[in-house]
Fold this protein.
Amino acid sequence: MAGSDIRIVDSEGLPPEAARRGDAGMVRAARASLDGHRTGLARVLPFLGPAFIACVAYIDPGNFATNIQGGAQFGYELLWVITAANLMAAFLQMLSAKLGIATDNNLPALCHQHLSPRMNLGLWIVSEVAAMATDVAEFTGAALGLYLLFHIPLLPAALLTGVITFAILGLQQHGFRTLEIVITALVGVIAGAYLLETILSHPNAGQIAYHAVVPALSGSSLFLAVGILGATIMPHVLYLHSALVQGRVPARTPRDRMRIFAMERIDIVIAMTLAGLVNGAMMFMAAAVFHAHGRADVADLTVAFHTLTPLLGSAASIIFGVSLLASGLSSSTVGTLAGQVIMRGFLGWSIPVWLRRVLTMAPALLIIALNINPTQVIIFTQVILSFALVAPIATLLYFTARRDVMGAMVNQRRTTVIGLACGAVILALNAVLLAQVLGAIH
């Protein structure tokens, strides 16, 4: 059933939980925007934030690994995959946000409420596997960034990553808005770094424009194409986004919900456009620097870091390392938040954030301790994620198409058709990849 339009508020019209979190100022500003007392950019600002937290997952170390390997091996050829994946990701994030705003609930919790216990348990298992695969990539990437920049051995670097991300998560006690600002700042660091890398690498603008829209696959590029898809459309943030917006701004009427969703669409368009540009920059930097110089063998983030120095100078490698570290720290933080939402929603369990952090650190620490190549691990996790995508996409479409759940914000038929098309593309690519891996296609 759609979320009630009557909310428990204090004397100032603020949800008590928002006041406790220190987000009262943001809620007041958002309320003023909804009531027509703010105009222009000031009207939109209070609503910006949730999509920037979600977009971190689209520029995480998994993207670094797949995009750089794709650019080094195939030049500009796979840019169209980034374009297609980013468009699908933005569409699906809008569905997730709409679900949270319309119902004042999140996707895992709705699965728990409306689906059979057996199906709910199966979805939780798939989602936890996806969350763990995500965290392995993000955690390993942050540790690798510390190793490359400060020469800290990987195992101590991984432990330090856990401490830093836990400290970032602790900012929630000062208000969730504070965490949004910190994560957005880290996104700005990544974007700024790749702006500089683009300036230094001088990519071919014509090749970028052509391959960003013209599909092409050759040789073994299918494996990387599916990896890029898995690295771009992330299962855990499809669950998380619905939680980030639920009750963030109190809606007094159905019209308020429509206005909040309109503002959140702006948030998503800005954040996802930025994420798409950064992903593209990762690939065309690798195409312009590594592929163009006959270094198709650069399939490792450590090799990429050290290869940049002789080709572009030491500044390029340092910028690369800083962006990787910012990506790993921010995405690892977001991954822990998503893990909390998944467990609490599907199972009704809530564990301390430090315990969740320790549990999600364990697989990454094991991989690092076993001295397994971190880049190959990261790429493999992205392929796992592309298979796990079916569960959140299917449940998102199921609930957003139900009028008894969504009320007036139920999907129009064309929205559901587009969503089904996104799911079909992902399923088709995964099926071809599986057949290729099993040796049915050569």
